[in-house]
Amino acid sequence: MADNEILQMHDLKPAPGAKKDRIRVGRGEGSKGKTSGRGDKGTKKRYQVRPGFEGGQLPLYMRLPKLRGFKNPFKKQFQVVNVAALAELYPNGGEVTVEDLVAKGAVRGGFPVKVLGDGDIAVALTVKGAKASASAKAKIEAAGGSVSED
User: Fold this and answer.
1) Which long-range contacts link 139-143 to residues 24+ away (Cβ below 8 Å)?
2) GO annotations under biological process (predicted)?
3) Count of CB atoms within 10 A of residue 130's CB?
4) Which of 1, 13, 79, 124 could form a disulfide with 144 if both were Cys (CB 3.0 to 4.6 A apart)?
5) Averaged pLDDT, 26-50
6) CATH number, domain at 92?
7) pTM of this prediction exceeds 0.70
8) 125-128: strand order across its sheet
């Protein structure tokens, strides 16, 4: 091509070595023929077996037990704390918040809290931001306290 000529679409060609012929497997012994990369005798040489096939042995997916039912991904997991534990943590009474319970190590953070009615309480507690069972609510209110879930 001369210096003053403009490069045209029909003048373009791939770089040397960029275009290689694909290997035509199984087309005679002179060109990767014969076994075609499948090795010697056996089932896999003659045809492909399905994934998970174990040669007639009972396969893994059939040996394992079936999982029954399902797990609800939206289930609320409550951290529970009993009235007896609250009595130990707050011997003088006062206000009980979820943040305070997490700080004292009674529950883990990041989960809603529920107060259950196991044990007895004698001090007045104001429980805020936690759910309470009916028996826990009755015991807290009988001791002069209150429960609010907001």
Assistant:
1) 139/83, 140/83, 140/115
2) translation
3) 23
4) 124
5) 86
6) 3.100.10.10
7) no
8) 94-96, 125-128, 146-148
